[in-house]
Write a structure and sequence with these properties.
Layout: H1 3-12, E1 17-22, E2 25-30, E3 39-41, H2 49-75, E4 84-89, E5 96-99, E6 102-110, E7 113-116, H3 119-125, H4 129-140, E8 145-149, H5 152-160, H6 165-171, E9 181-185, H7 200-210, E10 214-217, E11 224-228, H8 229-233, H9 236-239, H10 241-255, E12 268-271, E13 275-278
Helix pairs in contact: 1-2
């Protein structure tokens, strides 16, 4: 790649840039909008000047779109308050509330991206943390819930990805006796699917639909698995009930999940008498 050709193409497209030494090697920075915010590139990572410039243009467009979202969120336009949703995380956020062993926080969803709501945004918007969570709770509870009986095909796909020994033992039993369900909010945005665990009304509806109490396995921040209590009691000596359920959750969390998708190491139970409880 010839540096002079690259500079000529960038100038023709009115893209501001400069070359700079970073971490002992020369990189060049392009500036989508502000002089103090640059996108860094290494020339040797690309086969040609054209390929690099195309990558730069694509990244700049994405950056500009994201910055527009940031401005919209900062300015708190009317539609923004309709785009606040509760999300879950295994680790605390700048503004979050603990719920069992994980945390609830708020993201603003805009088109194909989202932004975590910070204290700085609350100061700009002049709303309280209580109001923020109330708005997000209202919007989240309007989402449709997906409640799916896992098919043998889906189970086989899961088993191909790792040693899900307990899941295998459960799923080879007759599905009418040992059903396993997936539940989540239907949304094109990531991060709030498993927030259904916060909606007591929906959990109560699931209890009524199943006709029995049920266990909740926190498979990720995107979804939960539901195992009716009668399923665990079926062949109880083999399953060893709660111990094996905990082992399954731990195994999947440690071996199969990216850190940002991890939700909880706990097993929960929803009962008609006590509602949602952590299994000790």
């Amino acid at each position: 790649m010839i540096r002079e050709n690259l500079e000529k193409m960038l100038k023709e497209k009115n893209i501001e840039y400069k070359f700079q030494q970073m971490n002992g090697e020369e990189k060049f920075l392009v500036f989508p909008q502000r002089k103090d915010v640059g996108l860094a590139y290494r020339m040797e990572e690309f086969e040609s000047e054209t390929e690099l410039v195309e990558c730069i243009e694509s990244n700049m467009q994405q950056y500009k779109e994201k910055m527009q979202v940031v401005r919209d969120v900062r300015d708190y336009k009317p539609d923004i308050r309709e785009n606040l949703y509760l999300c879950l995380s295994h680790t605390p956020k700048e503004i979050s509330e603990k719920f069992f062993d994980f945390y609830v926080y708020v993201r603003c969803f805009c088109e194909n991206m989202s932004i975590e709501v910070s204290k700085a945004l609350l100061d700009i918007w002049k709303i309280s943390k209580t109001s923020l969570f109330a708005l997000a709770k209202r919007n989240t509870e309007k989402l449709d819930m997906e409640f799916v009986l896992l098919s043998e095909e889906i189970c086989e796909m899961a088993l191909e990805k790792g040693d899900f020994s307990l899941l295998l033992r459960i799923l080879i039993m007759p599905p009418e006796k040992v059903p396993l369900y997936l539940i989540r909010y239907k949304t094109h945005q990531s991060g709030c699917g498993a927030s259904v665990i916060l909606n007591n009304h929906l959990l109560s509806g699931i209890r009524e639909r199943l006709g029995v109490d049920f266990y909740i396995l926190p498979s990720s921040v995107e979804e939960l698995l539901i195992l009716p209590e009668c399923s665990v009691e079926y062949e109880i000596e083999e399953l060893e009930t709660l111990k094996n359920l905990r082992e399954l959750v731990k195994s999947v969390n440690d071996d199969k999940l990216d850190e940002e998708l991890l939700l909880s190491y706990k097993v929960f139970k929803y009962s008609e008498a006590d509602g949602l409880q952590e299994m000790k």
